Fold these 3 entries.
Entry 1:
Amino acid sequence: MSGKAQIIDFQSKKMSCEACIVGHQCLGYDPRLPGACIFKNSNMPHQLLHRGEYLYRAGEPFQALYMIRSGIIKTYFISEDGEEQILGFHLPGEIIGFDGIAEGAFPSNAMALDTTSICKLSFDSLEEHYGASPQLQSALLRGMSREILRHENMLMLLGKKKADQRLASFLLNRSTYQRSHGYSATVFTLAMTRTDIGKYLGLTVETVSRVLSRLQVQGIIEVHTNQIQILDLDALRDLAGDYAGRPGIEHGAIRVNRPFTGERQVNKAFH
Amino acid sequence: MSGKAQIIDFQSKKMSCEACIVGHQCLGYDPRLPGACIFKNSNMPHQLLHRGEYLYRAGEPFQALYMIRSGIIKTYFISEDGEEQILGFHLPGEIIGFDGIAEGAFPSNAMALDTTSICKLSFDSLEEHYGASPQLQSALLRGMSREILRHENMLMLLGKKKADQRLASFLLNRSTYQRSHGYSATVFTLAMTRTDIGKYLGLTVETVSRVLSRLQVQGIIEVHTNQIQILDLDALRDLAGDYAGRPGIEHGAIRVNRPFTGERQVNKAFH
DNA sequence: CGTCATGTTGAACCAGGTCAAAGAAAGTGG
DNA sequence: CCACTTTCTTTGACCTGGTTCAACATGACG
């Protein structure tokens, strides 16, 4: 069967880190080293995956993190009854596999949605360079923290948002990624199917399709199969209802007004 | 107002790490040191929070992780329109605050649901001891990875599960925690309100209440306000539908049979 | 023991799921 | 390059789990 798919020959294609688009964002990046990468001389450089191939599967032993150089990877869980929950679509610059550290095995699956070039960051090599490189340490911690933050935002989305808000958030996310990587914030291609979008956002295909149609009718976006054009970014932002950008300065202040039940007791304690 | 609540005097109450129930599970634990804790001589030891008091709030600068010694803390996001999504209920032994590392500020709020003793793990001290202690490094990485894993399970729960499955998972979780900490796996107290359970599980209070009643009628649990007794653990497990325990050995194998659409291509590539 | 928060239960409603069917793309093989 | 097959997408009609609204019960606490 498809079991073979997970056997990837990492030796077959070595590429220089110097040419890597990811550059200094990479965990392995170190300008002091020849080749600018701590993995330069290891025998585990880059590898190409084709659509539908697995990078790893649930249950496999964890040995490495993976950095995406180009392409797109989806990571997902499968429940007892075969239901697939997509955990993320991962784009160039992102590192995946953090969830394997805890138990020494991957709990999730990672599959390429398109031709994808990835870089294997052997955990042993990583630990080897760990003591010597404080910036490697903090890059790793920040990378994991960012992953946690991303998950927390997804919990908010799945726990509280309505279908259109979910789609709006999703599109906005892509848009933000696009802009921050020098591409158009308003015109882009979705590499994944509607089904997969649904499995990511906790919705059915039909709902995804309907909401996209609805947004199009409302003049907020324009859709041609995989091509998305955002016509009204502000409307999309309104819909998404994320607090504008990140842990702003004054959230605490804003929220003081809210009638937290539990808070009463605090007040009492201070009066 | 309640703003005062977040000003916590960490100097006021120093306690020995040697007496700490958390012991070697703690990030700071090091048997070679006097006091067995890398934080022993720092001026940031333990502190007591009362019900409704904040440990930190969204927007505050991140300086430390916090380990819970006793009690219970809820962490949560608040959306633009004041909606609260609870990210977790954190019990003794757990470390919270990882989500603040990425941006240098907390994106979430942390409030005590009951009298709670916490230990402040200053991030500076942590980094100071980092190079010297490989086990501190790996404990930190594994702690964060476990948090990621926990979130991924919650994504599954919120994305795929029905109300009763969510409650079943929730109760099962508590049960597992209880057992692994030497308490009864079948009889315990819920420290949080139904409203909070709802905000955690993406449901309304009414639904939580109804489902609990239903489970009681079905003879699976018995509820007296906050007292829960699990009568049929297996039924609960069936309901929850988590794959029994963690990234088992053979998930990959099991799943090979599933008709993944994308997989077709892989097979071809290998034939 | 009265008050206020929290919990329960009922009834009506609706967002999104389910089922079904048809159209549009994209891969496949001649 | 074209015909064929399969997957993906869209849309409609219906159904239902969970929300909403409302009323009442319980229980903690000063």
Entry 2:
Amino acid sequence: MKFKDYPKPSVTVDIIIFTIKDDDLKVLLVKRGVEPFAGKWAIPGGFVKMNENLEVAAQRELREETGVNANYLEQLYTFGDVNRDPRGRVITISYMTLVNSNKIKLKASTDVSEARWFSVYNLSNLAFDHKKILEYSLKRLRWKFEYTTLVFSLLQKKFTLTQIQKIYESVFNKKFDKRNFRKKILSLGIIKPVKEIEEMVSHRPSQLYTFIGEIGDTINII
Amino acid sequence: MKFKDYPKPSVTVDIIIFTIKDDDLKVLLVKRGVEPFAGKWAIPGGFVKMNENLEVAAQRELREETGVNANYLEQLYTFGDVNRDPRGRVITISYMTLVNSNKIKLKASTDVSEARWFSVYNLSNLAFDHKKILEYSLKRLRWKFEYTTLVFSLLQKKFTLTQIQKIYESVFNKKFDKRNFRKKILSLGIIKPVKEIEEMVSHRPSQLYTFIGEIGDTINII
DNA sequence: TGAATAGTGTCTTTCAGACAATATGCC
DNA sequence: GGCATATTGTCTGAAAGACACTATTCA
């Protein structure tokens, strides 16, 4: 079979980069510098190189945009409708990751003019079918937060229970009862208190905990 | 950006076709007629045409192998490791579907020599990375059976509670308690009895039910 | 002592899961 | 009556969810 002779679609990876900033779930978008959709905001992405695995390509895009490596990266879905890109047939494999926004210093890559964090609850007018991709990724993110220990990819080594709860409240965009939430988290046996407490706060300092487990482990949280 | 000038990977769709036959969960495999892996069994699939959406390509492959259209088709995962196909870079988007084996008359397509149903619990020595793909698809199938009404895509319009239970037992490869299972299914409010009972059986005939809802609806079943 | 956040327990309801006897139709 | 399968209810333990007050630190 001489499949080299057939015309082939282009293949890209897009990476949805989530973070929590100011108690709000945010996603990193880049402003397109070239047509099509010049001036519109888009999910960062780029072409997959011929000798590059898909996850490697996604990691590379992440690094180009943020300068950090993901400790969690998950393939989401592949979008390949014939007319999703006016330049021709482009099939994109979407990935998502979560980064700690403190560690990030945004830098513009070569073919984009700007990169910025956007609240996921206030998005509009994105390039391509990226709005649809983001809606899908938010569903997946919530699902992952219900069933896995993904939250710890957004926390420092030591953290408080309130910090966990605030992240959950940002991701689900709703409040949880403090007592029930803490009871549930503690019952999972995935965190343990450390011999330190919060410092430099003008109120009762809280107990610090550390995560014992692997990020992404399956476990019922909510 | 003249992205037409870059070398591009080939893109295929593979389709995992599940059915229940003889109270056993089976998957359709085809015997490869050509190299690489000539003579090995493989998941059916083929190249995506340039003017063809991904789901359409998957539906087409399904029709070529079985002659039926899917009433349920779901994208699973995209496999794209650099060396997964010795002929070159091939990225494959996998889909899964469930068909009623009564309706199927298998036919060989052009580039395969034979198609057969295999028990998912007895697979070995498949072509490419297809073993890995099947393991992944079984996990997803089970997940879907826990949380959705997918089972009804395998049943006729009228069915018995025992038929539902037997399908679940095949999919999860374990037995369920009859009383608890029926209690649970009935509590969901997604089926209703019809004014007929089973005929032509040499034992107490059972009540027939019909499904009220959409296949794939989310709902907690197990 | 006031401000700010940390930390904590009980009750009710729901659901999962264990468990066995009777009913019906056909031969 | 014997065979084969259908149908049915109770109890227990676990977990979810509603709900409000006290504790601690700092300024």
Entry 3:
Amino acid sequence: MPAKPRRTERRSDALSKERIIAAAINILDTDGEGALTFRALATRLTTGSGAIYWHVANKDDLLAATTDHVIAKALTGAPVDAAPGDAIRAIALAVFDAIHARPWVGTQISREPWQSGTRRIFEGLGQQLQALGVPERAQFNSTSALVGYLLGLAAQYAAGARLVAQKTSRAGFLTDVVARWTQDEPDRYPFVQQIADELREHDDREQFRAGIDIILAGIAAIR
Amino acid sequence: MPAKPRRTERRSDALSKERIIAAAINILDTDGEGALTFRALATRLTTGSGAIYWHVANKDDLLAATTDHVIAKALTGAPVDAAPGDAIRAIALAVFDAIHARPWVGTQISREPWQSGTRRIFEGLGQQLQALGVPERAQFNSTSALVGYLLGLAAQYAAGARLVAQKTSRAGFLTDVVARWTQDEPDRYPFVQQIADELREHDDREQFRAGIDIILAGIAAIR
DNA sequence: ACCTGAACACCGTTCAAGT
DNA sequence: ACCTGAACACCGTTCAAGT
């Protein structure tokens, strides 16, 4: 016999944390970080702005939940059967690609790194480092180095994307950074001067991968 | 004969970008990131909030200038005559210590990394990597790895400090993070479970230094 | 139990008006 | 040239009142 509707059963149009998260992601993807307000969210969900607080503690809670959602999904695609070194690269690149697709994830994960999204990344990388044979005493620091690097790049990428949005193109943004970094006091910044062309033309994903390889080589060397 | 007062000469109580930056740093150090508003700044400078805009483009500009000021000062102490490897550690630790003393610098540098503060760090580390003998084709990626790691740790440290402020102690904050990271679904996070004690008791500065050593070892190995 | 929406206590930024 | 401070257009969050 069919179960009686439980108390927790809801009309399909009832509010829920899941629906709020989905709407928030939608706004962030479509209109950017500045467009996510409780008023905009309420309008999109055709409800009152106060209603959202019944399901979500505050804006930080909402952003943590949306970020965790995206990171969890990104890590789902990462392989389990690959060699540890390849698995580490795959996990790191999966996170990188998720942030590339949604720069607001980078903003959030670097603004509030002590959240569940980081826990997932930490766990995924740590397990593979173990499988790689890194001795136990070096596992915590090695994983932290990898996670720290990843967070740093996330911050750079997210900030870059915000500036690209203003300058309309990635080339324009980098040309602008290089111009600002080389115009005043060029004598004080010979190294920046020297790598200016590379900075202007580099591929973010390739550079990210190169950094991961450096850290993996360092972990192997230190062990 | 004494020079005539030039047009640019000012009464000592006149506003200037320098005075605004000093007041902003004062507020940030004393009352935290949330306390820096144009109204608070105007009160401390006994002026109108609109007056600040004559010297500073907007809040982002102000924060970039304060951060650059702190980073510049931090790098002043870094040695020039040390061996390249030691100089790199010294530069990195100087930035780390500056962020330790002023977590708001970490927030700002990870939120807006494409600013002058990062340029100084990039230049300092790049020069030493050159002196270390890293081949030219590897210099850009190597420096970026180091800078990326440093920004990531800056973000972690700043976020940690914000949470410490809420929890009143660093031990309390880390205990809280560990509790949140291990309580639900412990089976899905065996690695986090395993390093929980280390996470709770680790020394940030030592871990940061360990990460720098890993990256330096990696740079040496890859070359 | 859950939702409404006005109200509160803020923000950054602008700008006419002053000196 | 530089400063004043009210005004504008927002925010996140709260909460009495509804269903």
